[in-house]
Write a structure and sequence with these properties.
3 strands, 114 residues, 3-stranded antiparallel beta sheet, alpha+beta, 12% strand, 6 helices, globular
């Protein structure tokens, strides 16, 4: 079931639907460096299981964020890369990283300093 919040931008909500699932943001961020094979993505995100990685990649492909590329063999090789829409994640990544930095700074300083 799709979650909605009246008063918030529908486009924002659509983007949050993509990012709301566990591991999705990390998978997209991992693909920022270029096309990777399934095993390479798994090696860069060691805590993710193969089943959930496969599920998330299929979902991201269906949402138009990731493209699955099959290179004919032998052996057949499959890679995943970001689409143009997926590459737009870099701006989001940078904004979340800046926000994470300010959250970490706040924890270091503590609320009593305000």
């Amino acid at each position: 079931m799709k979650r909605t919040c009246e008063g918030l931008c529908p486009r924002f909500q659509e983007a949050m639907e993509v990012l709301a699932k566990p591991w999705t943001g990390l998978i997209v961020a991992t693909l920022e460096d270029g096309a990777l094979r399934f095993s390479e993505i798994g090696a860069r995100i060691p805590a993710i299981g193969d089943r959930i990685l496969s599920t998330r990649l299929k979902e991201l492909e269906a949402q138009g964020v990731v493209r699955r590329i099959v290179h004919p063999g032998p052996p057949i090789r499959v890679e995943y890369e970001l689409t143009a829409a997926g590459q737009g994640f870099r701006t989001v990544y940078d904004a979340i990283a800046a926000w994470g930095s300010s959250l970490a700074d706040q924890r270091t300083v503590g609320p009593e300093s305000e």
